[in-house]
Amino acid sequence: MSVHSVMRSLRKNKTLRYGVPMLLLIVGGSFGLREFSQIRYDAVKIKIDPELEKKLKMNKVSLESEYEKIKDSAFDDWKNIRGPRPWEDPDLLQGRNPEILKTKTT
User: Fold this and answer.
1) CB 98 within 8 A of CB 91
2) 81: left (phi over 0), alpha (psi -120 to 50) or beta
3) pTM of the shown model
4) What are the Basic and acidic residues biased-composition ranges (predicted)?
5) Pairwise CA distance, residues 106 & 48, whole Å
6) How far apart, in whole angstroms, are the C-alpha atoms of residue 95 and residue 80?
C-alpha cells in the first residue's frame, strides 16, 4: 500500500469526512458556550456605584402608584390616532396643519 492509496481511502471514509468535523463542532461549541455563559454570571457579580444605586432605589415606580395617578382621569373624550408610517408626513396624518407648526418653531 502506498501513501496515495491510504489518503484516497481516508478521503472516501464517511466517518472521517463528516463525523469528525461534526464531533469537533459539538465539543468546541460546548466549550464556547461555557465561556459565553460565564460572562453572564460574571456581569451579575459586578457592583455598581453606591451613589447610583441609592438614586435608583429612590426613584422606584410601582404599578400601584401609577394606577393612582390615572385612576381619576376621564377617558370619555379619548380618540385613537394612528401613528405615521416612515413614508408619511406625521403632521398631515394626524390632522395638524404644517403651516401653523412652522410658525410656532420659528
Assistant:
1) yes
2) beta
3) 0.37
4) 79-88
5) 44
6) 13
Name the H helices within 1-106.
3-12, 14, 20-45, 50-58, 63-70, 90-93, 98-105
Which residue carries 390616532 as its cell? 81
Eight-state DSSP code of residue 82: P
Task: Average the pLDDT over 84-97 and give the result.
Answer: 73
Contact criterion met (CB below 8 Å) for 85 and 78: no
Could you state, in order of their start, the residue ranges of all structural domains in the chain? 1-79
Dihedral of the CA atoms 13, 17, 20, 24 (nearest 10)? 170
As a whole number of angstroms, the longest Cα–Cα distance in the chain is: 93
Q: Does the pLDDT value for residue 25 go beyond 90?
A: yes
**Residue 95 falls in which region: left (phi positive, over 0), alpha (psi -120 to 50) or beta:** left
Distance of CA 80 to the CA centre of its chain: 29
pLDDT of residue 27: 94
